[in-house]
Amino acid sequence: MGHSSHYLDRVLFTYTLSHLTHSEKIRFYYALKGRDGKSGVVKEYHIQQLGKTVLLVPSPFDSDVESFLKLWNCTMTRKQVMIEP
User: What would the DSSP string read from start to end of 5-40?
Assistant: First the structure.
């Protein structure tokens, strides 16, 4: 049995919103978290938001989240991480 069975594959995204206007930021947050704060792509892709602009994403949804951030023209960094369950 390899190490992978003990860890979860995740991708850590950090991104910027400084290029967005105030109203665009509000629209971004609604898209991210839904108007109720618990729907949106966070729910759809099982994302953990670790900070204001830090997302921990299950590997299968990596490209979906990258596309979402590109849609908003966010500068981003992505790092593959392994975390203990």
Answer: GGSEEEEEEEE--TTS-HHHHHHHHHHHH-TTSS-H
